[in-house]
Amino acid sequence: MLFRSTHPRRRRAVGPPGTGRSFAALGWLILSIGVLSGCATYHQQNIQFHTAIAEGRYQDAVDFLETHDRDADGKNRLLYRMEKGSALHLAGHYLESNTTLEEAYVILEEFQRNYALEALSFITNPAIVPYPGEDFEKVQIHYYKALNFTLLGNISDALVEARRINIKLNQLNDRYEAGRKNHYGSDAFAWTLMGLLFDASREYNDAFICYRNALDTYESSYSADYGLGPPDRLILDLMTAAWRTGLTSELEQYKARYSVGWSPPASRTGGSDIVIFWNNGLGPVKTEDSVNFTLDRGDVGFITFVSEDRNFFLPVPVGGKDTNSLRDISLIRMALPRYLERPPLYCRATAVCNETPYPLEKAQDINDIAFLNLHDRMGRELGTALLRLAIKQGIERAVRKQDAALGVVVSIVNAATEKADTRNWQTLPHDIYYTRIPAAPGPCEITLERTTVSGTTDSVSVRVDVSPGRTAFLVFHDPDSLPR
Amino acid sequence: MTKLISLCASLSLILCLAACQTAPTVQRVDTMETIDLSGRWNDTDSRLVAEEMISDSLNRPWLMSFVEKNGRKPAVIVGTVINRTHELISTDTFIRDMERAFINAGSVRVVQSAEAREQLRDERADQQQFADPETAKRWRRELGADFMLQGVINSIVDTNDREKVIYYQVDLELTDIETNEKVWLGSKKIKKYVSRY
């Protein structure tokens, strides 16, 4: 049950004998159905898919989604395509991955809030509305699409994704400037990725703009919010892009400010190199958390919802004959979403090319972004959950006044439908690392040496063909997480 | 019971509305219409720059001086327009407008850019091998440019919580390729105030 009443008489059935028992039985039936079908989190509902991803059985994960496509339409259609798009990418089906992620992009572009469904969510739960996607997830769609295009050797279409990221980041920035409390107002890694793509297409001026915006974001936001400073590789690429664009004064400023050992490359027009991404671990999953609130009736005309666990206080004005229902409540339990981290098995990696090691640097911490993002809006989540609870309580009271037995049914249904929205894109990596390796044209063997948190190392090698004067892209995925 | 019926009716209405979703509204608008949404560089800024630069470059003495001295129209090639702002700005839009105005006015000839020339040379090389010799185009007949158009875009952004002033300055210059002499300098300044109150 969501709440306990301090007035037992209000729970007593006053309808005709038998009617109450029938309604109660019906209520318990609904409750049972709710428990059996609806209480599982999104992760638990798709456990076979997520287990396959976590174990590196990517094709199995794709096959599972293709045979279990109940979410392909309806409220989870965006999430279905996000998960399927990344699973297809992991399985090496880059074209199909892009087709699926493009559908996700179109869904987001055409996404409109369904206010009626949102209203309905106040008497059921927030998981009934179409999944709108987290801001950082929307940006990640373009990361995967850009990776797919680069791996297919199509840099011009990868640049389309770079421009879409730019539009998305501008929208984010506008919202952030408009005063909404949100740490994720820009994405340093997305700017870096855009810079890498423009760099690869030899558009050094645009690459410079992106690298500089990335550096600004790392220094102004990521360092403080996620403890993630700018990678040295970014600063080196920024200086090279400035040098190639002819931005001499900017180059001198950066040389004076950063001691990263930059020296001019052999070619002003760009040589051959390899950009390596390492998607390490798996991002967090959302789960449900029960939060207990006690009611403080200290102030006249106000009731304060207090959660000492979460250090949360919400005063709600009460008064008038119809609001006394809140005064009946002494303890409230409500469901709120919470992220659960999946700590990665590996903590660092080094790419080795021709016996020269190139350490990969962390450029994105999706886990930390997700946690802080949810924390930023937890006030809104709590407010919404309380409003939902108040509305449910109001409905129950109205029904109970007419028919006490039916009131019991409503109470049970309310309890059965109360749950948090536990949906999120769960195949995203925990962190993203990258580096750039200068390489001679022709076939090249790259070995990725990975170190686990316990200090053991292992490695994996791949061959990559480098074209003269081109940038080759290489992606490693390690979904391995520490056992929970 | 009335309350209960009202409640059920409300729920039914919500369920019906939930099933319907409105489609986005799209309408064609005049490309000359100024629509500012964010304060960032947009099509209107590009148009303002193009108008200013076209008018200025075609009405300055460099053009008449060249024609009087050489008895022909000058040929111009577009070099790099460096973007020093914090935004990704496509300079192609106003540069293309300028090229079109030069050609349509009939007073300035325009030579292809370095990248496009490479593609054209590839095609010419291909023609030497595969095309009918009577139609294959000859080498060493390219038009050498007299002037190069180069430029830079700068911006200054001043901001507080909810207000922002953005200043753009686009500077273009035309340089004699043989003598390195600057023969024309064009500038367009745009200042915007953005408020989010």
Mind explaining what this structure looks like?
- The complex is a heterodimer of chains A (484) and B (197).
- By secondary structure, chain A is an alpha+beta fold.
- Chain A is 47% helix and 21% strand.
- The longest helix of chain A is centred in the last third of the chain and has 25 residues, at 378-402.
- By secondary structure, chain B is α/β, with parallel strands linked by helices.
- Chain B has a single domain, classed as Rossmann fold.
- A 5-stranded mixed β-sheet of chain B has the order 2-1-3-4-5.
- In chain B, strand 4 and strand 5 (182-195) form a beta hairpin.
- The A-B interface holds A 110, 112, 114-117, 119-120, 123, 163, 166, 170, 174, 177-179, 205-206, 209-210, 212-213, 245-247, 250, 395, 398-399, 401-403 and B 1, 3-4, 7, 11, 14-18, 20-22, 24, 38, 40, 80, 82-88, 159, 161-162, 164, 196.
Number of strands of chain A: 13
**Residue share in helix of chain B:** 25-40%
- Cα-atom radius of gyration of chain A: 27 Å
N-end to C-end Cα span of chain A: 29 Å
Residue windows where pLDDT falls under 50 for at least 5 positions of chain A: 1-20, 32-37
Main beta sheet of chain A: strand number and arrangement? 5 strands, antiparallel
- Along the chain, the helix and strand elements of chain B come as HHHEHEHEEE
Give the DSSP E fraction of chain A (strand runs of 2 or more residues).
15-25%
Regarding quaternary structure, what we see is heterodimer
Shape of chain A: elongated
Question: In what order do the strands lie side by side in the largest sheet of chain B?
Answer: 2-1-3-4-5
Total beta-strand segments of chain B: 5
**What's the rounded overall pLDDT mean of chain A?**
84
Gross geometry of chain B: extended
Tally of separate helices of chain A = 16
Largest sheet strand order of chain A:
1-6-3-4-5
Outline the low-pLDDT stretches of chain B: none
Largest sheet of chain B: 5 strands, mixed
CATH fold call of chain B: Rossmann fold
